[in-house]
Design goal:
The structure is a single chain. The chain is mainly beta and about 575 residues long. The chain folds into two domains: about 210 residues, Acid Proteases (Cathepsin D, subunit A, domain 1); about 200 residues, no CATH class. Helix content is about 10%, strand content about 35%. Strands 5, 6, 7, 8, 9, 10, 13, 14, 16, 17, 18, 19, 39 and 40 form a 14-stranded mixed sheet that branches. Strands 25, 26, 30, 31, 32, 35 and 36 form a seven-stranded antiparallel sheet that branches. The protein has a six-stranded mixed sheet with strand order 24-27-23-22-33-34, covered by helices on one side. The N terminus and C terminus are likely disordered. One of its GO terms (molecular function) is aspartic-type endopeptidase activity.
């Protein structure tokens, strides 16, 4: 069997196991922009500082920074280094966040002037996306993560995990002649992720990075790659050997490039792929087609119509968008059941996206159509697990005869939370009311614990002939994007199948229960998350180094053709 075929089969069999790591984003936001990256720099002004608790910072072309106070009554306090971003600098044994004193200024990678535009092949695995990359002389499969800005890989510094990764086909990094080792830090680095993964170490190298083989042509020279000594918890059989980051921290980038004393952690914190090398990247994660990441590569034939663009901001190494009055209505429903949010309201503060009303908001006001026998009915059962456990409710949404005229509408609350755009997150987290409407349309149910929705599921159909999983009751699901909307591919909604089934004799499919990848954000969270299903459903152009926008358009009908040879 060809090596490439073996790798693909391994990735397929381990698709359930591939769930790590998901990028961490602190609830305390430090906001900054980088004018030195491009003449038309990243605008962060669309995200209000009073909502984020950060200080606005503009970086000049010379690399200095000058905080400026936004139009707020009180200037928020910047987060400390121990809470601002995906990484916490420490010695590997404690979490005090104390930066190292090692001087490695002479070893800072020179401005990356050698770069070649193109694309990188990407494969779906476990609800996330894996990029196939050459790093030096090594072929590795790394998790594509727009929510992280730290580039690190599994290496032979961890022999046991390295051996498991090689067996799983995801690869393990070994230094070769192309590597330039950076000086080992006395006190190293620690990268933490919100799913509990922690990578710590004190080693890093400067390496050449590029697309593997003929499947892509993008390449960079002199990229800083961290080599952790410990990664916990980590499954060596997961089919992934590190993180390929596409986030950006302007503050860390400036500090690493400004000159003077710079330690290893500051070097690692710089923009991992060099914003000076490209103006935008694209994500073509269409299921059934050859997925890719493009850099200064915009194949217009692969999406339909003009791009719907929204402003983006780099916050703590992750990309966020801020919904405002211009954002469209989001709708969920079908020909038999529908639920829409009313974007037009008499209240000036009630406009915005569907997900912009927190589950704990006191401003929610539901307005329902006339109740009739044709509408869905909810029944709630309280289950006491034990004397020490909180009551647990299961809300069952029973499907009766629906009629298109019976549309549930609600006014949006005044709260509009920023949305994290995270390709490294398997789940999409939005407000509870919208989630409830989605699973009503799907005739599903959600577990309710102390008033919050958890573990929403829906009836699904498993087609054994083509291994496709679809909702048993088809529905249209749209999430807002500026003045447009993202039409979710419901065949990609499934996150997990709970009860496996076998078709009856003479049939090709059977009914099961699926956990959806759109779930309710926890109460009190500072932001929502657009995860993997969003990028499977539409094409995105991340103009992060150019115009400071992200554009979205539906995928074209074209797919499965050898576009990479054209």
């Amino acid at each position: 069997m060809a090596p490439r075929t073996s790798i693909l089969l391994i990735l397929y069999h381990f698709h359930k196991a591939l769930s790590l790591p998901q990028a961490f984003s602190s609830d305390a936001f430090a906001i900054s922009t980088d004018q030195s990256a491009d003449a038309s720099h990243i605008p962060a002004a669309s995200i209000a500082p009073e909502s984020q608790g950060g200080v606005w910072t503009s970086l000049t072309a010379a690399g200095s920074s000058t905080p400026t106070t936004a139009d707020v009554t009180a200037t928020p306090t910047s987060p400390s280094p121990t809470t601002s971003g995906a990484s916490i600098v420490g010695d590997g044994n404690d979490d005090d966040g104390t930066p190292t004193g090692d001087s490695a200024n002479d070893f800072i990678a020179a401005p990356q002037e050698t770069a070649r535009a193109g694309f990188i092949p990407v494969y779906p695995a476990g609800g996330a996306f894996v990029a196939e990359l050459n790093i030096g002389d090594n072929l590795l499969y790394l998790r594509v993560d727009t929510g992280s800005f730290h580039f690190w890989v599994i290496s032979n510094l961890m022999p046991d995990i390295c051996t498991s990764a090689i067996r799983a086909g995801s690869g393990c990094y070994t230094q070769g002649t192309s590597a330039t080792p950076l000086p080992t830090a006395t006190a190293g680095y620690t990268f933490r992720y919100r799913d509990g993964v922690k990578a710590s170490g004190s080693s890093a190298v400067i390496e050449n990075v590029g697309a593997a083989g003929i499947f892509g042509s993008v390449a960079w020279a002199s990229q800083v790659v961290a080599l952790p000594a410990t990664v916990t918890p980590w499954d060596g059989n997961s089919g992934v050997s590190g993180v390929f980051p596409l986030g950006f921290s302007a503050q860390a980038y400036q500090e690493a490039r400004a000159g003077g004393s710079a330690n290893l952690t500051e070097i690692i914190d710089q923009s991992p792929l060099g914003l000076n090398n490209w103006h935008f990247f694209t994500t073509y994660f269409k299921p059934g087609a050859q997925m890719f990441l493009g850099f200064d590569y915009d194949p217009v034939e692969l999406y339909r119509g003009p791009l719907a663009e929204v402003s983006i901001a780099a916050i703590n190494g992750s990309w966020f968008v801020q919904p405002d009055e211009s954002w469209s209505t989001a709708a969920q429903g079908s020909a038999t059941a529908a639920a829409t949010t009313d974007a037009g309201s008499a209240m000036p503060t009630s406009t915005g996206p569907a997900m912009a009303t927190g589950a704990d908001s006191d401003t929610l006001a539901d307005t329902t159509a006339t109740v009739s026998a044709t509408e869905s009915v909810e029944t709630t059962t309280t289950v006491q697990r034990s004397s020490s456990d909180a009551p647990m409710e299961t809300t069952e949404i029973m499907k009766r005869q629906h009629h298109p005229a019976n549309v549930v509408k609600r006014q949006l609350g005044s709260e509009r939370l920023p949305i994290l755009l995270d390709t490294g997150s398997e789940d999409t987290y939005i407000d509870a009311d919208t989630v409830k409407a989605i699973y009503t349309a799907l005739s599903g149910s959600c577990l309710t614990i102390q008033g919050s929705l958890h573990n929403c599921t829906y009836p699904c159909t498993f087609d054994h002939a083509n291994f496709a999983i679809s909702p048993e009751y088809p529905a249209t699901i749209q999430l807002p994007w500026g003045a447009s909307a993202i039409s979710i591919d419901t065949k990609q909604l499934v996150a997990e199948v709970y009860d496996e089934c076998e078709p009856e004799k003479g049939k090709k499919s059977c009914s099961s229960t699926c956990r959806g990848s759109i779930q309710a954000q926890k109460s009190g969270a500072a932001h929502y998350v657009y995860g993997a299903v969003v990028y499977k459903s539409a094409f995105f152009k991340w103009d992060t180094s150019g115009n400071g926008t992200v554009g979205m358009a539906p995928y074209s009908d074209r797919g499965g053709e050898p576009w990479f040879y054209e």
